[in-house]
Every structure is written in C-alpha cells, then in structure tokens.
C-alpha cells in the first residue's frame, strides 16, 4: 500500500488537538464553548485518532460527519469513531461538553479489550452518529454534570469514576438505540445479523467486495442477506459494501496531497481508470471533480 491510511486529511490526536500540559494520557473532558474559542481548526474538515462524544446543551448550527449534515439542537448527543471526518459550524450561543478518549482508556479497564466497538454508535456509521435524548435529556445532562464535577475536584481526579459514568451513558444510549432499531425489524436475530454485516464491512470492505463473501462469514445465503438489506434499509447487500468503499474514497479525495492513482491503489482497484469509472457511476462526478469542488469549500 502507498502511504499511511491515517494520513489522508488532517488527523488530530488528543495531544495535538490542544495544549498537552493540562491533558491526561488517554482522556480529556472539555467545555465546548471554551474549546471553540481556543481551537479554530475544529471548524475545518478533520479526523481524529480517538473517540469523541459531544453533548449539546443549547445553541444552533451544523455538525457535518462523513459528508452528512446534522442540524444541532439542545440535548443532542453525537458519537464519533476514529477515522471519521467531521467539522463544526456552530453559532456563538452553542454550549456543551466534549469527551475525547483513546481506546486504551477502556481496554485497560475492561476484561474485553474491544468492548467499546460493540456499541452501535461507535461502528463508524452516520446512521448511528446522532442520538436525540428527548425525555432523557435531564438524565443525560446529569451524567455529564457528574463527569465535570469529578474533573474539577480539587483532589486528584478519579478516572475510574469517569469510566463508570461514560459506560453508564454508553450502555443506556445503546439500549435505547437498539430498541428504536428493533422496531424496524421482525426480531432481534435480524437486527444482530445486519449489525454484524455492517461490522464485517467496516473490517473487510477493501478486500471483500462481494455479498457472497460476507454471507459465508455470517452463515447465511447471499439471497437471504440481500433480502434482509432490501427489507430493512431499502438497498441491496452489494450497495452496503459499495457505499462504504465510496465513503472511504471520498474521505481520501479531500486530501490534496494524494493523487487519484494513489487513492485507487490504496483502495485496491486494478488501475486509475477502473476507480474513476466506479466513482463516477455511483457519485455522479469524476474523482477529480469531487476533489476540486470539496477543496474549494
């Protein structure tokens, strides 16, 4: 492969996102307003090497994640996984809390090292990036208040308490999100099958392009997998795979340092022309046109 897959557009770690003097090793809790006043690069497209949770207390604006725009509202919870591209365009009244953490923050605490990756909202999909807390706004707000109080304690911060508060939040949000998704399914087995399909795509989308390859991993027939995708999401199993590949192509294209040929090679296309035909067929414009238009914005 050419280059480093993490170096497509600006990638920020916890340590280079802010002054490192006041940061712990693997987790940081920030006041949103203070952060926006201090750090302007959050308003331009970038991606993180860490997980992020954003709780919006109030304000107006747009949060763009992987080329999808969300109008923010009080009580919104946004979840970001490493590698996702996002930017903020919030007005001066927007207030909230940001929690950034590395995977090791929980993997060193839990017996199951990849526990965090099982949550729907940390699968790297914009389908699960936003949760409207609605009636639970007060409860969710109380969790963030406890986190802030612990951070501001005059004694040494007890990071295990922060972990517990966050796990409580994640578990309750995942349960609520799963219940909402379950209403779209005939039963939980279908829900978990589609979830596993999405997780497998995230892991193998560059090397496995055919629905039958995933059907074999899931121990179902390709026809069953395709019918499930059509019924629940209204698209074919093949479209699921192509859409993930197309998303990564779009992520890479907005980096001016990578050529079309380099991107085609990194995504395992046979040649530049094959990649260009693929991109134009499903995005409607050539890769170069997409790149130029995005770089102008």
From TrEMBL:
PANTHER family: ARAC-FAMILY TRANSCRIPTIONAL REGULATOR (PTHR43280), TRANSCRIPTIONAL REGULATORY PROTEIN (PTHR43280:SF32). The keyword Transcription regulation applies. Keywords: DNA-binding, Transcription, Transcription regulation. This is AraC family transcriptional regulator. Gene3D superfamilies: Homeodomain-like, Jelly Rolls. The keyword Glycosyltransferase does not apply. Pfam families: AraC_binding, HTH_18. Residues 195-293 form the HTH araC/xylS-type domain. It comes from the Bacteria. PROSITE patterns: HTH_ARAC_FAMILY_2. InterPro entries: AraC-bd, Homeodomain-like_sf, HTH-like, HTH_AraC, RmlC-like_jellyroll, Tscrpt_reg_AraC-type_HTH. Transmembrane segments: none annotated.
């Amino acid at each position: 492969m050419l280059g480093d897959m993490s170096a497509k557009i600006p990638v920020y770690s916890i340590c280079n996102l802010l002054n490192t003097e006041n940061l712990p090793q693997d987790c940081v809790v920030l006041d949103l307003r203070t952060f926006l006043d201090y750090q302007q690069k959050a308003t331009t497209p970038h991606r993180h090497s860490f997980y992020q949770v954003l709780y919006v207390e109030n304000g107006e604006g747009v949060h763009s994640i992987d080329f999808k725009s969300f109008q923010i509202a009080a009580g919104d919870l946004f979840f970001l996984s490493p590698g996702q591209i996002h930017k903020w365009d919030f007005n001066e009244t927007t207030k909230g809390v940001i929690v950034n953490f590395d995977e090791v923050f929980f993997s060193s605490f839990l017996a199951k090292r990849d526990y965090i990756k099982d949550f729907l909202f940390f699968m790297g999909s914009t389908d699960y990036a936003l949760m409207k807390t609605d009636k639970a706004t007060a409860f969710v707000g109380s969790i963030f208040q406890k986190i802030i109080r612990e951070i501001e304690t005059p004694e040494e911060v007890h990071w295990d308490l922060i972990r517990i508060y966050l796990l409580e939040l994640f578990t309750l949000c995942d349960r609520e999100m799963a219940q909402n998704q379950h209403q779209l399914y005939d039963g939980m087995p279908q829900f978990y099958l589609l979830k596993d399909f999405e997780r497998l795509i995230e892991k193998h989308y560059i090397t496995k392009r055919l629905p039958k390859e995933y059907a074999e991993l899931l121990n179902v027939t390709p026809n069953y997998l395709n019918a499930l995708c059509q019924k629940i999401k209204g698209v074919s199993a093949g479209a699921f795979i192509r859409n993930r590949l197309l998303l990564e192509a779009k992520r890479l294209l907005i980096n001016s340092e990578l050529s079309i040929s380099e991107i085609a090679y990194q995504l395992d296309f046979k040649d530049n022309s094959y990649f260009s035909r693929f991109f134009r067929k499903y995005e409607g414009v050539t890769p170069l046109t997409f790149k130029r238009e995005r770089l102008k914005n």
